[in-house]
Amino acid sequence: DENTRINEYKRQYKSLRTHVREYRTTVISGSFVYENNSTMSLLTDIDEMEEIPQEDGPKFKTKGYSIKNKGAILPVSNTLLADEQSGLMSYVGRWFARKAVKTENADILAVMVADKTAKALSDWKALKRSLNKDLDPALIPGSVIVTNQDGFDELDNAVDENGRPILQPDPKNPTQKMFKGLSIDVYSNNDIPSKNGKAPIFYGNLEEAITFVNRARYEIAKSKEAGFTKNATLIRILERYDVIKTDNDAYIYGELTITERTTTNKDDSSGGLEWGEIGGDENKTNTNTENPEG
């Protein structure tokens, strides 16, 4: 089954979908409801035989989604298709999987940046203070730190007053590092580019913050007629999804100051997405604007 094969290929690539909530649907648009933690009331003390007071009910919010079609077309020589049917289709599956994961990551990042003003973080101590003061402690379980190679290198080279590294190995996964008990997930500078000496860094509970609405199956179609004049078959693959934000306060978007030593895409022209392209320059609101030095 081609759908199963593409999903297996996609698991080989680093995806932000592992950190966000997934909601499966069979329709092209719809909505679901949720209750924000900040509006949730407490239970009431009740004496024996006392009537239980009624509440106004949960203060639900509605979030709508609208499925978008994402796809690509690959022209393949009919001669090559006839000679290399099995190996070629495996290549096409991997080709689409790489493009799909890169596109999904870009769309998730665009939503993560939207409606946020980046919090300036001068060093690891500012990041520590922000984790202590800006995030609701109730959201810490399930939280994660996401950054790029520059941000990770800055943290990985940092030491405390006694010369000890501030990052610690994850006991469950020795190849991964942790900061204040939170795992750090590192992405390529090409996928999450640094800009003006600042490395993007996201920390908090992304599963509470972002939902990936997935219409599940891929549509795979071939047409010899479309490529008739070139003796080619056009292979088209589509996937359908939407990405929405459900809790803007469940995470922080920060910018960590990096040194010349750590910047690997100094000219910001590596081919990755610029923050302006994914909503960074026009984003407006976020209450987490405390001076990190304060």
Description of the molecule:
It is built from 6 helices and 14 strands. It is an alpha+beta fold. It has a 7-stranded mixed β-sheet with strand order 5-14-10-6-9-8-7, covered by helices on one side. Strands 1, 4, 11, 12 and 13 form a 5-stranded mixed β-sheet that branches. α1 (2-10) crosses α3 (85-113). The longest helix is centred in the middle third of the chain and has 29 residues, at 85-113. It is flat and about 80 Å long. The chain starts with a helix and ends in a 37-residue tail after the last strand.
CA radius of gyration is: 23 Å
The total beta strand count reads 14
User: What is the 3D shape?
Assistant: flat
Write down the overall mean pLDDT. 84
SSE arrangement:
Layout: H1 2-10, E1 21-24, E2 29-35, E3 60-66, E4 68-77, H2 78-83, H3 85-113, E5 119-121, H4 124-133, E6 144-148, H5 149-156, E7 168-170, E8 173-179, E9 182-187, E10 198-204, H6 206-209, E11 210-214, E12 219-223, E13 232-245, E14 251-257
Parallel strand pairs: 1-11, 5-14, 6-9
Antiparallel strand pairs: 2-3, 4-13, 6-10, 7-8, 8-9, 10-14, 11-13, 12-13
For the structure shown, list the relevant keywords.
294 residues; 31% strand; single chain; 6 helices; 5-stranded mixed beta sheet; 7-stranded mixed beta sheet; disordered C terminus; flat; alpha+beta
